């Protein structure tokens, strides 16, 4: 059964996947930045005693090791990729970075949308450190800093327990948890960071520290939503695991028409059952091409219900009253089979993304505006699947106070995300038009949205990014940063500013 439903969903998704891997088109401003050359002496000193592998340009595996998920940043080439195998390797890298002040970036899964895990200096990659150890007695799991969602799933799936995590199999646990961590379990169990009970990290002095709520409550507060790359290189995380049983997963697709009524009914469904259901709903065009008409936009929702199929079908009655879906895949399955069904393909392409939060719901006027913007899409080679998505992130996430962890967006019901994606065939002027569309669309939607943004969906052009990512928690985060990283070793374009 698993194969059957996974295949169905994959086939459906592939119609508009982000596109094939593409040649890098990093913004000129990034490529123009001069790289501080480390020099052969520095690299030799790092390579000495290195237990993993230091990979230099031109060596086997370099291109793959340097390649980020968003190919927009693939032109940002590191001087070396330090594929760390141990915590001691990470310490060697940080010691060298501290001594030479050379630029560096940390990478785990490599999925940062804005290229913050790319660098023209040293790329410190922990991906190979991907062990997961389950402690059933204490109902915890230790996840090494390089493990991704798939590694965690493989270690837990036979034991009836799970950690709330995201949809993409190769997103790193590090990036996910440090920024918060949305997934289909969030409304029921909380964010990924809400299950974190401790973490090990190599800080600016190159010392390794293990922190939790007792040993350094402020830093532990900061790493739960403060974003990756700010306080140190995390080498391990301890999570509480949660028992899981049967869930009902669903994928419903409606033919074009009644988009506003359907999206309103989907929001009503979510808000009526805030902790029992999780929806990811959107409108999208049937085909690639400029200016899709309103009557070519269809509605899709993908989700998970923490209950049985019969009850879900009853709950869906108001939606069926608006319109009967063309596709209605509804499966009562074991949690892990459901997770497999809900996985996203692993897109690897060229894209730009923006997001805000929705306080309660998108009104009729807001949805009308969103659909109008979709019809103004300037065109390009790819079908746009992600022009406007509502990720449910209320429920349990809202039960935690906004100042209890650095993740501040606790009074919202949705992340609203919009995206433009293109392929190598699209000319620079086409891409420019798409990105201008994205900016204007985003700006125009702000009157309906919270002036906030999810640090795990970052954008380099975001004005007031620090306020948008951290809001009222910004000052406290900066104070932690000043104490833990006083010389701002861990810095990049949108790192937490020193107070
Ligand atoms: C296809 C796709 C699907 C996604 N799906 C979801 C989803 O379902 N839910 C969700 O919440 N988000 C999702 N995201 C966003 C994702 O959570 C963030 O991009 C996340 O930060 C990626 O983590 P990473 O380790 O893969 O990326 P990386 O690019 O390796 O790291 C992200 C940031 O964390 C830093 N970092 C990485 N490792 C460490 C470490 N060990 N210690 C300290 N800092 C580190 C990096 O320097 C960078 O700033 C998705 C992204 C993509 C591209």
From TrEMBL:
Its cofactor is FAD. Residues 74-244 form the FAD-binding PCMH-type domain. Pfam families: BBE, FAD_binding_4. SUPFAM superfamilies: FAD-binding/transporter-associated domain-like. It comes from the Bacteria. InterPro entries: BBE, FAD-bd_PCMH, FAD-bd_PCMH-like_sf, FAD-bd_PCMH_sub2, FAD-linked_Oxidoreductase, Oxid_FAD_bind_N, TAT_signal, TAT_signal_bac_arc. Signal peptide: none annotated. The keyword Transferase does not apply. One of its GO terms (molecular function) is FAD binding. Keywords: FAD, Flavoprotein, Oxidoreductase. Belongs to the oxygen-dependent FAD-linked oxidoreductase family. PANTHER family: BINDING OXIDOREDUCTASE, PUTATIVE (AFU_ORTHOLOGUE AFUA_1G17690)-RELATED, FAD-BINDING PCMH-TYPE DOMAIN-CONTAINING PROTEIN. This is FAD-binding protein.
């Amino acid at each position: 059964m698993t194969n059957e439903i996974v295949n169905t969903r994959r086939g459906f998704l592939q119609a508009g996947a982000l596109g094939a891997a593409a040649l890098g088109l990093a913004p000129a401003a990034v490529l123009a930045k001069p790289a501080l050359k480390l020099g052969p002496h520095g690299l030799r000193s790092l390579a000495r005693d290195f237990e993993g592998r230091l990979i230099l340009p031109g060596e086997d595996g370099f291109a793959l090791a340097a390649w980020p998920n968003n190919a927009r940043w693939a032109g940002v080439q590191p001087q070396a990729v330090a594929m760390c195998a141990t915590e001691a390797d990470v310490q060697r890298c940080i010691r060298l970075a501290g001594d030479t002040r050379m630029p560096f970036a940390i990478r785990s899964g490599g999925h940062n949308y804005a290229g913050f895990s790319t660098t023209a200096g040293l790329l410190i990659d922990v991906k190979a450190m991907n062990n997961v150890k389950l402690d059933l007695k204490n109902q915890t799991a230790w996840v090494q800093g390089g493990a991704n969602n798939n590694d965690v799933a493989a270690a837990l799936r036979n034991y009836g327990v799970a950690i709330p995590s995201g949809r993409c199999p190769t997103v790193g646990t590090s990036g996910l948890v440090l920024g918060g961590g949305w997934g289909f379990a969030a409304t029921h169990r909380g964010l990924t960071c809400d299950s974190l009970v401790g973490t090990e990290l190599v800080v600016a002095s190159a010392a390794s520290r293990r922190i939790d709520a007792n040993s350094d409550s402020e830093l532990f507060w900061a790493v739960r939503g403060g974003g990756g790359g700010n306080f140190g290189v995390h080498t391990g995380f301890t999570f509480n695991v949660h028992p899981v049983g049967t869930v009902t997963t669903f994928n419903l697709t409606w033919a074009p028409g009644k988009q506003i009524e359907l999206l309103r009914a989907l929001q009503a469904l979510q808000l009526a059952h805030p902790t029992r259901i999780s929806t990811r709903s959107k409108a999208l065009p049937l085909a690639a091409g400029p200016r899709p008409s309103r009557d070519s936009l269809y509605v899709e929702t993908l989700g998970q219900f923490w209950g049985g199929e019969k009850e879900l079908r009853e709950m869906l009655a108001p939606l069926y009253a608006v319109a009967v879906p063309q596709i209605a895949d509804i499966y009562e399955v074991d949690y892990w089979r459901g997770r497999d069904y809900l996985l996203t393909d692993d897109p690897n392409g060229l894209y730009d993304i923006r997001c805000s939060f929705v306080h309660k719901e998108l009104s009729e006027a807001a949805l009308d505006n969103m659909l109008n913007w979709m019809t103004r899409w300037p065109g390009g080679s790819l079908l746009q699947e992600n022009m406007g998505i509502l990720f449910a992130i209320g429920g349990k996430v809202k039960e935690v106070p906004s100042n209890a962890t650095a993740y501040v967006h606790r009074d919202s019901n949705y992340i609203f995300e919009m995206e433009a994606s293109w392929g190598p065939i699209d000319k620079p002027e086409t891409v420019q038009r798409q990105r201008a569309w994205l900016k204007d669309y985003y700006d125009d939607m702000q009157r309906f949205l919270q002036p906030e943004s999810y640090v795990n969906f970052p954008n380099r052009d975001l004005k007031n990014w620090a306020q948008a990512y951290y809001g009222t928690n910004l000052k406290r985060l900066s104070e932690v940063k000043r104490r833990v990283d006083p010389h701002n070793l861990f810095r990049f374009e949108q790192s937490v500013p020193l107070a």
